[in-house]
Amino acid sequence: MASHVLPFEKPVVELVTRVRELRALAETDRRFEGELRRLEEKAGRLARELFADLSPWQKVQLSRHPNRPYTLDYIGFLFEDFVELHGDRSFADDPSIVAGLARFHGRSVVVLGHQKGRGAKENVKRNFGMPHPEGYRKARRIYELASRFGLPIFTFIDTPGAYPGLGAEERGQSEAIGACLAAMARAPVPIIATIIGEGGSGGALALGVANRVHVLEYGTYSVISPEGCASILWKDGAKADEAAMRLKITAPELLGLKVVDRVLEEPAGGAHQDPAQAAKLVDGAMSEALGQLLQLTPDELVRDRYDRFRALGAFVA
Fold this sequence. Notes:
By secondary structure, the protein is α/β, with parallel strands linked by helices. It contains 14 helices and eight strands.
């Protein structure tokens, strides 16, 4: 994984690197365990202090961090016997959405999510995590497959948005996203969505019509990117930091607005500093949510999802 450090995270990264080195030593020599615990506590404390006052724009930068674990990383940590399914049965396969069958704690499920690339070559292959219509039609096919066989659905959201190119529009980008929304809305199975990075516009919502929506501590979720918002409102993309503040797209703000149901704590310095620990925290939240949703009948699951989204933005006069 290429090294990439944001200016405001340098002190934490240095400490976390030392913790990692000391942990390797402690595995072979138990004399280092005491020092390791002290250093871990110090790293955690420093991260909480430094990250407590991050601006919304800095959190956006963290949500896009190229070292953050992506969907395939979480699949490797959380699921067994994953078998990827390809193609939309109409045009092509889109690598920016990965999907397939797997086992989650012994239960058969379907899992899908946006997939970004690491490095220039893979990012081109994955189209920087921006799906084409065929990616969303693949997702819809998976939703319908899960509905047919009664399999719970897990989605991982991490995209700047759907690809806005001419070819994508010609092949029905908006219709493909709309079909995803409809397929998720009527699926008679539990659906749990986790925002693991950035969630941009309808390209994210196509994987987000879930019974439970979780967001990682430094994840974001918005109707438009801060840069796009700034370009529209002020004709100046450089005002993205102000747009990020006004959009209220950070995890605590999303929870306060009830757009998400739960904020998942990240390891000291962010999920990219300890992907295995981040996956462990995600696993606990998904297991708990699935246990609750399995108590509902198919009709109750659909109604639960309907009521959840109907309540967004509602107010009492």
